[in-house]
Amino acid sequence: MIYLSSFMFSDQTVKNPNLYPYHVFAKMTERVLLFRPITILYGGNASGKSTMLNIIANKLGLKGQEYASCNMFGPCSYFMRFIGECRYTPGEEEDGSVVRIPKESRYIKSEDILYEIKKIQQEQVLADGYVYEHIRRGMPKEQRENLKNSWQMKKAMENIIFSQEKYSNGETTLQMLEDYIEPDGLYLLDEPEVSLSPANQVALAEQLNEMARFLRCQFIIATHSPFLLGTLNAKIYDLDSGELEERRWSELSNVRYFYEFFKKHKKEFE
Asked: Residue 187 phi/psi, 5° resolution?
């Protein structure tokens, strides 16, 4: 399913070349992403892939979006100005009608996953996070105070502590992603391979393939994991090239590095 067909980043310029996020795109001549059911933004550190996901999330108003505050160059919020200059095209149904982006669509960051794991590892942090989630949903202060000493919260803590004992970090990551991702949704995933072993990265990729094919999900994923890149049935944009160029996974520098490394040590595996 295609909920988001294309996204065009701002092509406007500013006088100061260091302004965020304008500087991320300063040397790019191509500013348009065309999406498939699964699209990958590949790149190393500082390539701009996480910035791109966050800009898309802000433009679409997705859950999990992060706001970049005003910078020291003046009172203007250049981040929101940039967002306003971006454009996107939604998908279409077979009859030509516009597809609405589902309400439960969301932007899931690697730090979100790590924080959830940390909450499982630290009971007090978990309790604070549990209450915070109700604050975020608009629960009044009086009800929050009652919640802290309630049977409901006690059972929630017991269940998550049980999960801590039962699952490894990698298994917990897979479980949380499964809980976050529902049918009929657009999901922006920023390095979902965090804490996952190679085998679990492949398992995750196979699960995402099935959700895109059978459950009407669309994924835009930022990663440089060769296991995700080689398993996902995806269109891949290579941000390390300095442009939004489409590549095969076997052409990517990070994957080629793995290939050359193991080829060099081939005799040790024979």
From this structure: -130, 125
